[in-house]
Design a protein that fits this description.
Largest sheet: 3 strands, antiparallel
Strand content: 25-35%
Strand order of the largest sheet: 1-2-5
Low-confidence stretches: none
Structural class: alpha+beta
Mean pLDDT: 92
Length: 152
């Protein structure tokens, strides 16, 4: 009887050992697949996105109209051509932190921006109701990219 119990224990240990090895292999392969996907995304998109800059200014003579006083500059320093960008503008009163523009007012831009080139344009964003009388040239404007699509 002791011999049967001993054989059963060895069988259970062997099965548990192989189950643990199989679980470790599956976990390792899952980690490798996840790392590969992350690396591919970085190689094909993220490293290029890091080289796209957006900025604003109010002192450019091309945008000296009250309707569109904010110069938006999208600079493509990546090696890929930009097919489309989406961005939002933000405006704050000096020494204040609240954005006084309407929220979720994304601007779509389908201009093609080749590598090493910059796109500029005069823009304005709608202000919230309480700030409609404010002179937009006295606000501090900024912009941020919502999304960038590259050509293949």
């Amino acid at each position: 009887m002791a011999d049967v119990v001993d054989q059963f224990r060895r069988l259970v240990r062997l099965l548990l050992k192989w189950a643990l090895i199989a679980a470790a292999v599956v976990a390792g392969l899952t980690g490798e697949v996840a790392a590969s996907i992350h690396g591919y995304e970085w190689w094909t998109y993220d490293r290029h996105l890091a080289l796209v800059n957006i900025s604003t200014s109010l002192d450019d003579p091309r945008c000296n109209t009250p309707e569109f006083p904010v110069l938006v500059r999208i600079e493509n320093r990546s090696t890929k051509t930009i097919a489309q960008t989406r961005f939002e503008l933000a405006a704050k009163r000096p020494n204040r932190s609240s954005d006084v523009t309407k929220q979720y007012n994304t601007k779509d831009n389908d201009y093609i921006i080749p590598p090493g080139k910059t796109l500029t344009g005069c823009e304005i964003d709608e202000l919230v109701d309480d700030e409609r009388g404010e002179d937009p040239r006295k606000l501090e404007w900024s912009a941020y990219l919502v999304s960038v699509e590259f050509e293949d």
